[in-house]
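Researcher: I'd like a structural prediction for the single chain below. Treat it as a standalone chain; there are no partners to consider.
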Amino acid sequence: MTISAPVAAQPPTKPLRPSDTFVDHVLALCESKKAQADLRTGLGLPVERCNYLHRYLVPRLSERLHPDAKRAHYAVAALIAARPRSAREATAHEAKGARALADWHLRPNLGAALAEGARKGVLKPDSAEGDLHLMARQSSEAIHPRLPALTRHLLTGGVAIDWAVMLEDLSWWNRKRDNIATRWLESYFRVSDAHDDSGTEDQTPKSSEENN
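Model: Treating it as a single chain, here is the predicted structure.
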């Protein structure tokens, strides 16, 4: 009798967060050039001026969605549609990698992206940190118009954006700004410090015995 080798148990698949599902929907929409062009017209605009986005997003969003969350969904859809060509192919792979992280708070937020941009020379460190501190004091009304240029700059420089994390952060920004801003700042300095440590050689003097 042949005895089959035991099969390793597979870890249960985690259900996708609604924000991830929405991002997947927008990415699928962007496979159509017309839909992508329509979604891109909403860059930096309030929902009331996003006339070409309604047909794509209204069926996916609850009528009872908070106005801040609604604008966040429209904003992220437009930002995804406006990705530079160099960033489009990498998005799906990056999203799957980010979802593999067990803890939602370990996924890269905007603070982590700014730190990565500074590390890669896409942004000057003083400028990246200054932008972060400025946004931490602003309402979402001031942040939304800044995002198109900022995210495009990061993406063009090869810095990934976790759109689902951005969507949730923007949705809650006006109601939990201090908490989210603190998380962005912590991520910025954690990523910056990790890269600083990895690039620093051990400068501890050797003992006389080691030198001999």
